[in-house]
Amino acid sequence: MSGVELISAGQPASHAARGRHPLLAATLRAVGTMVLVLALVTALWVIGLWAFDVSSYVGKGPLDVVDILFVDEDAPALRAEIAGLLGRTLLDAGIGFVAGMAAAIVLAAVVVRFRAAESAIMPVALILQTVPLIALAPMLILLVGRGYTIVALMSAIVVLFPALVNIALGLRSVSPQMRDLVLVYGGSPMTVLRKVGFPSALPALFASVRIAVPGSMTGALLAEWLATGKGVGYAVVSAAARSQIGKVWALVVVITLVSLLLYLIAQLVEAAVLSRFGRPDRA
Question: What topology does CATH give the domain 3-276?
Answer without folding.
Answer: MetI-like fold (1.10.3720)
